[in-house]
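Proteins fold reproducibly. Next comes an illustrative record:
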Amino acid sequence: MVIANLIHDRRSLLSCSLTCHSWYTASVPYIHHTLVVQTVSRCDHPRLVWPKPLQEANKLGLLPLVKKFRVRVGFSDTATFSLKRFNWGTLRQFSALTNVQELAIDYLDIPSFMPKIRRYFGHFSPTVRSLALRKPKGTSRQIIFFIGLFQHLEDLKLLYDAIDPQEEELTDNKALVPSFIPPLSGRLTITCFRRREGLLGDMVDLFGGIRFRHMDLFNVKETRLLLGACAETLETLRLCPTDPHG
C-alpha cells in the first residue's frame, strides 16, 4: 500500500527500496519503469559505445522491467540511429528490453536496417502500444513497414521540424508490405509533414483504414484525408492555429 502511493515519487521510492528486501522488491519495477539513453559517437570508436545506463541495467537484469524506452541521438548534422550502432553485445542488451510499452527513437535510419529490421525491433512487437519517431529517415513505404512491425500499436507520433531543409528524394518500393495491421485506435500526433505527402494515404490503404480517437495535427497536408478516415471514431482534434491546411 505504501509503495502504491509513491509510484510517481521516484525519490521516495529510492528511499523505500533501501528499507528492507520486501520493500525493494515492491518498488524496483517502478524505479526502473523508464529508461532514456543518449547515444554518443566517439572518434576512436566509430561503431559507437552504447551508454552506460543500458549496459549497467542489463548486467543487473533490470531491462525486462523497463516499460518506457527512449533513444536520443547525440547532436550532429549527420547523427542517426542506424545499424552501425550495433554489434553482437549491444544487440543482446537491446533485445533484453522485452516489456517496453512506449518506444521513442530519434533520427531512426530505417534503410540501414533493411531487410533484417525484424532482428533488431521484432522483440518489441508483442508489448509496444505507443511509438514516437522524431525525424525518421526512409521512404514512405519503409516508414509504414516499420510502423507495421508493432501488431498492437495504438498511439503514433511522427515528428519533423518546421526548419528542416528539404530531404533527399528517395525511390520508394511499392512492393514493401507491412508485417501486421496495428489497431491504431489511440492518439495520432503529426508535425510538419510538408515533404511526406502520400505517406498517410498509403498508411490508410495498407492498414485497411485507421481508427484514431484523438489527433494532434500541425502543418499536415493530408489533414482532410485523416478526418475522413477517422470520421466514425474521432473524439478530439487539435490543429496548429497557423496550419494553412487546417
In short: The chain has two domains: 1-31, 33-239. Residues 1-31 form one domain.
